Amino acid sequence: MLRLLVCTLIVAALPVVCEAQPQSSPKGAADVVALLEKSGHRYTKVSDGVWEIIFAGDNVKDFPVRLALGEGMLIGLSKVADRKDLKLQPALLTKLLEMNHSMDSVKLALSDDMLYVRLDTHLRLLDGQEFKYVLDQLSGVTDEVYPQIKPFLNPK
What range does the domain containing 48 cover? Predict the structure, then answer.
């Protein structure tokens, strides 16, 4: 009988407990700016919801990484090469697929305009540690990929 009473009290209290849980508010531009400020990187605001950080690598002197707000997402992009500068041949495409396979979170993508590195993350998961990971991945992979695709660039 006591067990039944305890179970009834627990079930009756569930709606109150669930309502008392704080709902997480969706993150937005202010949260990203706060993370940018804490990151220690110099950044510029490109437009509403878009920021840019210039990185310097071992293989690429200076290159921008852009961060943009999407619907519930933070999208990070870094251009590796203009599409017009690429020799689009099977060897390059095979190389790109192999590099995509060997990388964890980022992906190489080929748009009408460029070859770029991209990483998407959900804003609800974004904290300082995840933000650092996003920036490290985008900048590190961009610098690492460039020498591997350099043989497939048209001479300037």
Answer: 25-152
CA-closest candidate to residue 53, choices 124, 144, 142: 142
Give pLDDT < 70 ranges for the chain: 1-26
Backbone angles phi, psi at 71, to 5 degrees: -70, 100
The CA-based diameter of the chain, rounded to the nearest angstrom, is 86
How many domains does the chain contain in total?
1
Looking at residue 28, what is its pLDDT? 86
Q: At what angle do helices 29-39 and 128-149 cross, to 10 degrees?
A: 70
Q: Return the number of other C-beta atoms located less than 10 Å from residue 95's C-beta.
A: 17
Distance CA 61, CA 16 (A): 57
Both tokens assigned to 15: 């709606």
